[in-house]
């Protein structure tokens, strides 16, 4: 009987540490130098194990900073289906800070159709999510001024904008639809630089009130190297 390859043994050891809570979600794991000594393996063996853990969604890597335990690995109870901001469950690295700004815009055919209005101005709220100094995701939110007034959002207060986008709007919303795709936009076309130039995943989220009216549309852009999600599906039961 063949013995498991060394990288498989390392994979399983690290996985067990995650499962038992020795390595915590969002936590940075020890350096490669420490791990090679700890497991008594070569750096090539360790990197093979780490690449598989990354492939399976248990860890993520930030260039120049190291490896981190993913927030939404298989031992987490968070899924895309949770009725919260999807940015909080799909990023594989911790959000350490946010940068916000907004714009007032004149009417457009797109937003008129989106909200079922005619020749109405609208607002765009922009949130950049950061890990350290690195931009790891962006949300472009499109919303009507009356919704901002309804939720008493102070546009000059970044915390008020974040509270609205990530919490308050979900408390009164009746439903939302999510569309996942690979964005056609190149990272270089944004006003801020992303952490890397990998293709961007796009989550388009439309949030509706109890009357079926659209409250807001969010467009989340996430580098594919930092994106992972899990969906729980159930078969239909016919009575």
Automatic annotation (TrEMBL):
Signal peptide as annotated in the record:
none
Would you kindly state one Gene Ontology biological process term found in this protein's UniProt entry?
A: negative regulation of DNA-templated transcription
Highest taxon of the source?
A: Bacteria
Ordered alphabetically, the record's keywords are: DNA-binding, Transcription, Transcription regulation
Q: Which InterPro entries match?
A: Bact_HTH_transcr_reg (IPR050679), Tscrpt_reg_HTH_GntR (IPR000524), WH-like_DNA-bd_sf (IPR036388), WH_DNA-bd_sf (IPR036390)
So where does this one cross the membrane?
none
Task: Tell me the ranges covered by the HTH gntR-type domain, including all copies.
Answer: 4-72
Q: Enumerate the GO terms in the molecular function aspect.
A: DNA binding; DNA-binding transcription factor activity
Pfam families the UniProt entry points to: GntR (PF00392)
Q: Does the keyword DNA-binding apply?
A: yes
> What PROSITE patterns has UniProt attached to this entry?
HTH_GNTR
Asked whether the keyword DNA-binding is assigned, the reply is yes
- Which named protein is this? Transcriptional regulator, GntR family
């Amino acid at each position: 009987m063949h013995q498991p390859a060394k990288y498989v043994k390392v994979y399983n050891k690290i996985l067990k540490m995650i499962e038992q809570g020795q390595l915590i979600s969002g936590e940075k794991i020890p350096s490669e130098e420490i791990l090679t000594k700890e497991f008594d393996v070569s750096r090539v063996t360790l990197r093979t194990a780490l690449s598989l853990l990354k492939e399976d969604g248990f860890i993520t890597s930030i260039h120049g900073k190291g490896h981190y335990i993913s927030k939404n690995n298989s031992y987490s109870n968070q899924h895309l289906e949770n009725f919260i901001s999807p940015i909080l469950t799909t990023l594989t690295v911790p959000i350490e800070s946010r940068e916000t700004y907004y714009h007032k815009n004149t009417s457009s055919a797109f937003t008129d159709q989106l909200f079922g209005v005619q020749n109405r101005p609208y607002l765009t709220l922009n949130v950049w999510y950061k890990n350290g100094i690195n931009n790891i995701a962006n949300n472009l939110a499109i919303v009507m001024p009356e919704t901002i007034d309804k939720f008493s959002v102070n546009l000059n207060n970044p915390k008020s904008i974040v509270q609205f986008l990530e919490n308050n709007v979900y408390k009164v919303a009746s439903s939302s639809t999510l569309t996942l795709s690979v964005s056609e936009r190149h990272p270089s076309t944004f006003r801020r630089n992303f952490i890397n130039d990998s293709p961007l995943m796009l989550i388009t989220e439309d949030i509706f009130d109890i009357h079926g009216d659209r409250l807001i549309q969010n467009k989340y852009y996430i580098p594919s190297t930092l994106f992972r999600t899990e969906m729980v599906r159930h078969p239909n039961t016919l009575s």
